[in-house]
Amino acid sequence: MPTQLSGSRVLVTGGTGMIGVPLCRRLVAAGADVHAVARRARKVSEPGLRLHCGDLTDDTIARRIFAEVRPDYVVDLAAAVEGSQKLDKARDIFLGTLLPSVNLVTEACRLTTLRRFIHIGSFIMRPGPDNVAPCPYGSAKQAAEAYLHTCSLLYELRVVYLNPSYVYGPGPSDPNRIIPYLISHLLAGKVARIGSGSRITDWLYVEDCVDAIVAALVRDGIEGASIDIGQGRGVSVAEIARFLEAELEGSGRVEIGAIDDRVAEEPRIVDTNAAIESLGWQASTQLEEGLRLTVAYWREELAR
After folding, report:
1. Which positions fall inside the NAD-dependent epimerase/dehydratase domain (predicted)?
2. What are phi and psi of 193, to 5 degrees?
């Protein structure tokens, strides 16, 4: 556990989400004074964690929280994490992802004592060959990153850009994301209907993602670096579906090819060399192990 964070104030937006919960737990264990931001009040079970409620799309909320916390470090996880390509959701996803980052970065630039700002982007939502992101969430991440680059240039904001691949694992998550969707339907004895399943993705277990974020907080000399983080292994959605179906044999089933595939999505596999060199980090959780841990979490959640 890194000792550099002991006594430091760390602000984590999206602190009650799938990545935020284990990250806050890890930071508290490291001796940091951890402040999490969530849109709605929730019961916090982690001793030593302080929760601030507010919608960061409102710049006055961001200003108030920064004035109260005056953080040494910021980890920006807040976003409308939904990969939908539907028009009726596009505006809300785009603004719900972009505005929290813009408001947070603006306040961070005012705080001259801030040591580091960790921006969580998205490797799998990066532009394809035509330089266009395949969904509103991805284009919002692009826009937020562009604003950060400008603020870093003009106002000397010390930023590290982390771009995780598809993060999965135990913890609160949108039930429509592919892995929670598959598991919840199979556990309930239902039919999970997916597209061709041919899309190849790099799947990153949540605790490995947390390890990378902690490394980015404490590693010297990496300001301005943009680092892709993933396992470096491409596995198709169909392979994931078949593994889960076999793991939960006798429950529901997966119907492959039942719906149309998403548009304009390219295979995404991380080159892990930059993370090894810059962070001294490498994913350690094998996909099969991570999926079993995720199944165990959802089995317990759905039994409540």
Report:
1. 10-230
2. -100, 120
Superfamily classification of domain 9-172+204-232+270-284: NAD(P)-binding Rossmann-like Domain (3.40.50.720)
Nearest C-alpha neighbor of 175 from the set 297, 267, 85, 54: 297
Helix or strand (DSSP H, E) at 279? helix 273-279
Asked whether the CA dihedral 78, 123, 160, 282 is positive or negative, the reply is positive
Q: Sign of dihedral through CA atoms 248, 250, 256, 260? A: negative
d(CA 198, CA 185) in angstroms, rounded, equals: 20
Spans of the chain, pLDDT less than 70: 1-2, 41-45, 79-84, 124-131, 261-265
User: What's the Cα-to-Cα distance from 199 to each of 41, 92, 159, 180, 268, rounded to whole Å?
Assistant: 37, 26, 32, 17, 9
Distance CA 20, CA 26 (A): 10
CB atoms within 10 A of CB 49: 20
Which pTM value belongs to this model?
0.93
Nearest to 267 by CA among 106, 149, 126: 126
